[in-house]
Amino acid sequence: MAILDWDATTLARKIATREVTSVQATKEYIERLEEVNPKVNCLVEERFSEALKEAEVADAAIARGEVGRLLGVPISMKESFDVKGMKTTGGIPSLTDEVKEMDAEVVSRLRKEGAIILGKTNTPVLCFCQETENKLYGRTNNPWDVKRTAGGSSGGEAALIAVGGAAVGLGSDIGGSIRLPAHFNGVIGFKSGNRQVSQVGSFPYVENALQERMLGIGAMSKSVQDARLINEIIARDIPEERELESFELVFPLESLVFPTDEDTRFELEKVRSYLKEEFSLVDEEPPYYRDSATLWQEIMSVDGARAVSAIAYGKKNPVSEHFREKFLGSTDLHHYFTWAVVGASLFRPKDGRIREIELTIAEGEKVLEEYFASRLLILPVYHSPAQLHGRVYREIFSLALSYKKYMPFVAYANTWGLPVLTVPVGESDGMPIGIQIIGHVGNEDAIFKLGELMVERFRGYVRALKEE
């Protein structure tokens, strides 16, 4: 079972040196997925037969001396990325005939390095929620406790990596969609910075410029070195080397405005105690921090969710469809999605406010470029470990505007288009707890270096359901 615990970097090296074959690794991952998926429901479409054929081709290529950074390595893919010959449904039953003829750009880049795709993983409807459930594929469960959320929208991907279902996977994040699942499931997750990774072939495509700059795409992995590797393959620019010692660490613990539970606070204090012995560390609130969740909510609502409504509803009225789902359960769309769409329409900013937001973002980007030139920011991911199914949704999508209390930790990096790495540092009653390491575009190398120190010193990746 060692293959299941190896990261993609290790597995690629062992396949290249013919210590193991790609066919062996692919078979082991397939067996693992067949074993755990009925309990976790992370994988929603498989291509096992094709993957085994590609593994045979990879082994033959290696025997001929061919190379590739992921040659023969089985990986998984979030359902929202197009894969040739597979469906991209966004969890909508009416789109089950949408078999794609081309790979997303990120998929194409990974394949060119020899990656073998095992299958696609579950998301909420059109990735429009931080919990993973839809009426087409059902609910993904947290493998550490199936009564708890896997997070979203990359919840299926994080759960699959947590159980050792692939060597590495790919997720996307416009509102914590990589980081919340990484935190809840105990895996490493990396969100790329503003427009560093192409979204061509990602569904739904983000048309609005304000929203596009918040979107990041990156690895969900077992190691920081894999997160770095995947970013080097899919990003437009390979980050230059940075001296980690030249960075000041901003760790707002005493000045932390928003709440964390007791166990999360305890893990944060352990991390801070270690870091203050090794680095220059300050406890302060970074610029624009308190406003980040409100800006994020306004930007996410900037079109009143018309783009996703058009995909999901066509010409039907979203409000009517929400109440039909709420009271009759008679639509194809999960009520998480229908209510989120109504909320976005209710909170749509007026045109004058949109212009104010654009000016604020333009001004803030200049301030933060200077602030983060030689600083890294450490934040929690959420105020608690994974909660029971449904609770995270109620905290974020409440008319009481509780997102202002619970979203700032993850919204900050989205609002300002910052690259961010999530690493597991501890746990509470067996449920993982992660932290975020946030920097500026161009300083990803320093982010990864600090992340590597964190997983060496603290929890790091631990495979779930080992007893299965």
Account of the 3D structure:
By secondary structure, this protein is of the alpha/beta class. The chain folds into two domains: 2-287 and 369-387 and 411-457, Amidase signature (AS) enzymes (Alpha-Beta Complex), CATH 3.90.1300; 303-348, no CATH class. The chain has 19 helices and 15 strands. It has helices at residues 2-5, 8-16, 22-40, 48-63, 105-112, 155-162, 179-185, 209-212, 224-234, 262-278, 292-300, 306-313, 318-328, 335-346, 351-371, 391-396, 403-406, 408-415, 444-457, and strands at 43-46, 74-78, 116-121, 133-134, 138-139, 141-142, 145-149, 169-173, 188-191, 216-221, 248-250, 281-282, 375-380, 420-428, 431-438. The strands form three sheets. It has an eleven-stranded mixed β-sheet with strand order 1-3-2-8-10-9-14-15-13-11-12, with helices on both faces. A two-stranded antiparallel ribbon has the order 4-5. Strands 6-7 form a two-stranded antiparallel ribbon. Strand 11 (248-250), helix 10 (262-278) and strand 12 (281-282) form a beta-alpha-beta unit. The longest helix has 21 residues, at 351-371. The model has no long low-confidence stretch (mean pLDDT 97).
